[in-house]
Design goal:
By secondary structure, the protein is mainly α. 77% of the residues lie in helices and 0% in strands. The protein is built from 2 helices and no strands.
Length: 82
Amino acid sequence: MAVLAGIVLDPRVALACSVCFGGKESDWNGAFLLGTALMLALPPAIVVAAGIAIYRGMKRQEARIRERDAQRAQQALEQGAG
């Protein structure tokens, strides 16, 4: 058990390459790091973009409703005066 813990906790084990090819000097390690960062950033970016789209759509709809109500009020004034 102590031998297994020693192997698992040995910091040299962590120096293995990203996917068992290339070495410490390989460009693959940076590429895998950037790919991981991209995959971690995409879900929050999608959620934020959807939230912004929903917010803008709601504001646009509110503006349409205000414009419609103003037109109806204007029509009611015109009909009452005429």
